[in-house]
Amino acid sequence: MKKWNEEGAPEETQAIYRKNNLKKTLEDFAEQIRCTMGCRIVMLVSHKKKASQTLSVSLHKSTPQNAKKIFSVSSSGIKEWAANGFESFGEWSKTEFYPSENSDHAASDCEDGPVLPELIVDDDGHAKLPLHDGIGLKGQHKLIRSIFHTSYKVCTGGSRPVPWGMITASPSNYLKPGSIPTGFVVKDPSHMKTEEVNRLWMHWERRSAANQKLVVFIKAKDADVRVTGKSKTKVVSTLDSDEEDQGRPVSIASPFTERRTQPAARTHETTPDDVAINDRYTFLETLSKNENYLELVDAIRDLAILANQKPISEQHKDLPTWADWSWRETYLPEDIHTSYEALVDSLNKLQTCLISGPPSAMPVVLGVGLLYRESKRVIEYEEDEADSNTPSYLPHSAIDLQFLVALDNAVREVLFSVIGHIERLTKEGLTDEDEDEEMRMVVDNEVVVEKAVGGEEQQEQEVEEVV
User: Fold this and answer.
1) Residue 214: which of 105, 109, 295, 132 has the closest Cα?
2) Across the strands, what pairs with 55?
3) Nearest CA to 313 among 294, 332, 327?
4) Alpha-carbon distance 413 to 295, whole Å?
């Protein structure tokens, strides 16, 4: 008992007690503070999850007495503040619960460790090679990301996030030859291993010594390039900037095609069964402006192009019935809004669905997209502005900020899975190219040998005729 009082109960016991009592304990505490001291409070709470190196972060707040909305969704500014708070508190909690998560963190992330150098750019705006000695792996990830992002700004004229999934699928379409080592698979820097990081640094050091730019984008993602004038036809490139997530166009085009931007009209009421098969990617892009979700849509499109497949979709019997292109309803079923367990269960099914290729990924992406759209409807609901078709259960929906955080985490997990398939197909393509090159060399050598042998025979024949 003394050990429990000093160090706390075992994690298994804590998990059980937390599951049964955390929500009520926090609610009781908030109510007690309100009643006894007249205070209103907001709490960020985090704890470990069963999966290794993962966390749960939630926001608890006082029940409003006079305000029409709860604090976390009371205004656009508060929503942004809450989202940033979740991210910052989550990062801090990770170091608290997993202090030795990455041995390289000690060199780059502690307050007394090396400070990341500020990037210096040349006259054209491209980053020069920074010093990275003594910087841990996570710090080097940040430097590499900044170098790519800085060059992407030059290409786009703006500050959009780098579309890593697209570049992974087809680096030669986006990067100038020589920007990366031969056969190097470009990916989000946070996923690069130590050997990949070292290889990239060595390559860039040689380019820097030769007075060459480290990385140059020759193309960006459609809808990312800053366009002037009134023309609606845009061919664009994109850069991934975490600081700018507003003003993103409703429709994001494929890097492999050019098309006119689509109007936002009717996208709020459009149902999946209304969408033609060739318009599915466009429809998916209208469901949410969330950056990770849009990158997921781009990634599944790139995966389909690599696999040479159309946007067909498989039916999963284990997925929610509405995560299917035959869904005809404007809103999701009532149980999604009235039962938090049903809501979370649906998300878990989407998150854990086995993805083997583009067809199996399509209903998953559709499902999370519809959840984003439904969440937006809940957040933006105003009683005096609701039309007669708005379901009566919408204003009391179980969808809350905590669920939105879980939804964002699920999208990132699905995105990693799709990018993994893209990397595999890309590597297979590089291997096939190498084998084709070797075969061409063998054939060329055989031709040379045949010509040489033929020449010798002709010389012998000429000598015989002279004799």
Assistant:
1) 132
2) 48
3) 327
4) 12
Render the burial of 194-209: b for 16+ CB within 10 Å, e for the rest.
eebbebbeebbeeeee
Q: What is the pLDDT of residue 342?
A: 92
Q: What is the model's pLDDT at position 166?
A: 81
Q: State the pLDDT at residue 335.
A: 92
Q: Is the dihedral of CA 361, 164, 403, 58 positive or negative?
A: positive
φ/ψ of residue 267, rounded to 5: -65, -25
Residues ≥6 apart with Cβ < 8 Å to 294: 248, 252, 285, 288
Q: What is the token pair recorded at 126?
A: 């491209």
CB 318 within 8 A of CB 342: no
* Mean pLDDT, residues 244-256: 35
- Residue 109, token pair as written in the block: 């992330």
* Per-residue pLDDT reduced to its tens digit, 157-179: 877 788 888 888 888 889 999 99
| Token pair in block for residue 387 | 């039309």
* Angle CA 173–179–180, to nearest 5: 95
Give the span between the Cα atoms of 448 and 266, in whole angstroms. Answer: 65
CA atoms within 13 A on the CB side of 196: 14
* Res 53: pLDDT: 62
Average pLDDT value for the chain: 77
Structure tokens at 29: 């505490």
Over residues 369-389, the pLDDT tens digits come to 999 999 888 887 777 777 778
Q: Minimal CA–CA distance to 119: which of 151, 89, 79, 77?
A: 151
Q: Looking at per-residue confidence, does 102 or 403 come out higher?
A: 403
Q: Are 349 and 320 in contact (CB under 8 A)?
A: yes
Does pLDDT of 185 surpass 70? yes
Can you say how many angstroms the Cα of residue 247 is from the centroid of all Cα atoms in its chain? 18
Positive or negative, the CA dihedral 409, 412, 416, 421 is: positive
Q: Which of 376, 371, 377 is nearest to 406 (CA)?
A: 371
Beta strands in 96-152, from DSSP E residues, in sequence order: none
- Of the chain, the end-to-end C-alpha distance in Å amounts to 113
**At 61, which helix (H) or strand (E)?**
strand 55-61
Q: How many CB atoms lie within 10 A of CB 340?
A: 15
Q: Distances in Å between the alpha carbon of 391 and those of 326, 330, 334?
A: 21, 10, 8
